[in-house]
Amino acid sequence: RSADVPPAVADGQPPTPPPAGPAWSGERERQPDPTGAGEITMYYQPQIAIATGEVVGVEALLRWRHPRRGMVDPGELIQVAEQSAVMRLLTRRVVDDVVEQLAKWTAAGTDLRAALNVSVRDLHTGEVADQIADRLTRFGVRPDRLQVEITEGALMADPRRVLATISQLHRIGVGIALDDFGTGYSSLQHLRRLPLSEVKVDRSFVLGMTEDADDAAIVRSMIELAGALGLRVVAEGVEDERTWRLLHAAGCDVAQGWFYARPMPAEELTGWLARYRPVRPTVTADGDRQR
Ligand code: C2E
Ligand code: MG
Ligand code: MG
Ligand code: MG
Q1: Closest residue CA from atom 33 of ligand 1
Q2: Which of the listed residues 45, 61, 201 should we mutate to test ligand 1's pocket, taking the one with most ligand atoms within 8 A of CB?
Q3: pLDDT value for 19
Q4: Per the database record, which ranges form the EAL domain (predicted)?
C-alpha cells in the first residue's frame, strides 16, 4: 500500500464494509459500485507439492478493492464483518465465486483444486454446506475439487453445531483443512475428532523456521504428527528458499507462500501457470543445514 493510503482504522472507527446489496451476493455481472464502497474480489494463491514442484491447488483469498484505500486485506474486513450479518453474505459470495471459477478452470482443462476459507460464524448453521452442495451441483464441479478451510477458533464457540456442519461438508465429499494449526486450543483433540483431509501449519511458525530453532522443531513435529495421522500437511508463509529446503527435509507435502507466488486474480493466475516451471529441491539429505 502506498504511503498516502489512510490507516486501516481511521479515527478509531472500523472501516465500513461494502453494502450487502445484490451486486455482491450472487449476481454474476459486477456493476461499477455506485455507493463508492468498492468491490469484493477473490485472489488465488498457488499451492505446490514440495517433492515434485507440481501445482496442486490454490487458496482463494478475499480482497476488498476500496475506492480510496486500494486493495484491503481480509483481516480487518472479516473482523468487522463477523460482528454482523455481513459475514454471511461475504461467505455466500466467496462460495459462488470460487465454485464458478472452478467450473471455468475445469472447462479450460486446468485441473486445479481450490480451497476457500469460512469464518467461525459460518459454521453455526448448515447454510454454508447447503450452499456449497447446491453450487457444486449447479456448476457441475466435482466435490473433491473443493476444500474448506476452518480455524480452530471456530470449534470453540459451539462445538456440536460446528461439528454437524463439518460432517455435512465431509459427506458431500468436500475436503476439510484445519487452518492456522498450532495457534488454537486442544489441537490434538481436533485432529482426532474431525474428518480432516489436511492440516495447514500456521505461517507464524513457518516464518520463524530459519531463525528460530524452536519454531523449526515445532513445525517438524507438526509435520510428523499430521503425517502419522494420514493427513496432508501444508506449510503457509513460505517466503524463501531456505524455508522451503527445511520443509522438504522435514517431509512436508505442500507449500504455499511468496517464494512461489503471491495471491493474484484468476486472470493473472492463468498466465502464471503457463510460465511456471516446477521448483524442485536439488539437494539433499543435509539440505536443512545448508546456509
Ligand atoms: P489464512 O487463511 O491463514 O491465509 C493465509 C494468509 O497468508 C493470507 O493472508 C496470505 O496472503 C498470506 N500469505 C501467503 N503467503 C505468504 C507469505 O509467504 N508470507 C506472508 N507473510 N504471508 C503470506 P490474507 O490474504 O491477508 O488473509 C488473512 C486471513 O484472512 C486468512 O488467513 C483467513 O483467515 C482470512 N480470510 C481470507 N480470505 C477469506 C475469506 O474468503 N473468508 C474468510 N472467512 N476468511 C478469509
Ligand atoms: Mg486459509
Ligand atoms: Mg492459515
Ligand atoms: Mg489466518
Answers
A1: 117
A2: 61
A3: 47
A4: 23-277
Query: In terms of C-beta density within 10 A (0-12 exposed, 13-18 middle, 19 or more buried), how is residue 42 classed?
Result: buried
- Contact criterion met (CB below 8 Å) for 73 and 63: yes
pLDDT at 202: 94
Contacts for 216 with CB less than 8 Å, ≥ 6 apart: 208, 209, 210, 246
Is residue 245 classed exposed, middle or buried when 0-12, 13-18 and 19+ CB atoms within 10 A define those classes?
buried
Rounded to the nearest 5°, which phi and psi values hold at 3? -65, -25
The alpha carbon of 71 and the centre of ligand 4 are apart by a number of angstroms equal to 18
Which residue ranges of the chain lie beneath pLDDT 70?
1-38, 154, 186-187, 281-291
Compute the distance between CA of residue 207 and CA of residue 220 in angstroms, rounded to an integer: 13
Cα gap 36→80, rounded to integer Å = 18
Residue 56 C-alpha cell reads as: 496442486
User: Ligand 4 centroid vs 75 CA: distance in angstroms?
Assistant: 8
131-161 in b/e burial notation, b at 16+ Cβ within 10 A?
A: bbbebbeebebebebbbbbbbbebbeeeeee
The position carrying cell 507439492 is 49
Q: Of 20, 4, 1, 168, whose CA–CA distance to 93 is shortest?
A: 20
How many Å apart are CA 177 and CA 58, to the nearest integer? 13
The pTM score is 0.87
pLDDT at 269: 97
